[in-house]
Amino acid sequence: MIQYLHYIKRIPAGCESLAYIGRRLGGRKNAIPTRLGAVAAAGLRFDAKPPIVVDMIVSASYRTDIPALYGDWFMGRLAAGFARVASPYGGSPYRVSLRPGEVDGFVFWTRNIGPLAARLDDVAAVAPFVVQFTVTGYPRALEPGVIDRGAAVDQIRALAGRWGPHAAVWRCDPVVLTSLTPVAWHRRNFARLAAALAGSVDEVVVSFAQIYAKTRRNLDIAARRHGFSWRDPADEEKRALLRDLAEIAGQCGMRLTICSQPDYAGDGVMPARCVDAGRLSAVAGREVRARVKGNRPGCLCHESRDIGAYDTCPQGCAYCYAVSSRDRAKRFLAGHDPAAESLGSTPA
């Protein structure tokens, strides 16, 4: 048993018990071998070659903007060595280790790395990281609470200068067609941003807005308030725009990938892998292994554990699927306890 445990790098989240090891070794729910003899009696054997272990990547977070809004909380959890996560799909909260050797990489999702930038050395001391950095250049009617695109571009350049060309991925998504941002506007805006980021990133991720119920509601509210209209374009119009964006990206030394919408891949557009063990490996200078386990149909991401929470980002993007009410998110941020074990903890 001791020899076998030596080869077990970690136990998957939610399985932190000897019963899990017992099932792995003996196949019986309550049979937990405690001696090598018991293992042999169970018909098991030890091989000289250790079993393949899936590395664990921590996502922070596609549910909210942790670097921009909850950096103090994240660094507190990093110091504590774990975070608790309230599952958005029900069930008991679970614990995600943030200890060196037990987390193999971080993927940050943000529109503003500034509040966390000075502490990235502390993050890198635990595990390598990649920043999925969203810069769209949309008007304030669509994105009232994000930083200026010039400041965002400067942050990405700084990331590349300090951490190398693989550390940041530019996200220009979602693509939203409105009377303020028609197709011609997207071409011009994308070309301007791509030129500004040339040499700092090697990939730009796009996708078209997924019109979930809360997305439709939020877009409709913003459209009435600011006097614009929006639409979900036909597939051929989407593909034509993607071809143009892919050509622009290529001219700026980037590949264009599309997130979780594989039907639009082709003609220079590749499927995206936003949680990418390969990119983390390039940053770390060593192999980071992970199995493909997407978060939704069409997603090619490697397996990760997300430590964020929905309805906690008050930046107010009109197309956002992660926030049902900006006012509710503002109240959460105002009452947030940076010392809480879980970001989803209800403010007192």
Query: N-to-C SSE series?
Result: HHHEHHEEEHHEHEEHEHEHEEHEH
Please report the number of helical segments. 13
Q: What gyration radius follows from the Cα positions, in whole Å?
A: 22 Å
CATH topology of the largest domain: pyruvate-formate lyase- activating enzyme
CATH architecture of the largest domain: Alpha-Beta Horseshoe
| CATH class category name of the largest domain | Alpha Beta
Q: Work out the strand percent.
A: 5-15%
Largest sheet: 8 strands, parallel
What keyword list fits this structure?
348 residues; alpha/beta; pyruvate-formate lyase- activating enzyme; eight-stranded parallel beta sheet; 36% helix
Written account of the structure:
- This protein is an alpha/beta fold and 348 residues long.
- The protein has two domains: 40 residues, no CATH class; 279 residues, pyruvate-formate lyase- activating enzyme.
- It is built from 13 helices and twelve strands.
- The strands form three sheets. An eight-stranded parallel beta sheet has the order 11-10-8-6-5-4-1-12. The protein has a two-stranded antiparallel sheet with strand order 2-3.
- β2 and β3 form a beta hairpin.
- α9 packs parallel to α11.
- It is globular.
- 39% of the residues are buried.
- The N terminus is likely disordered.
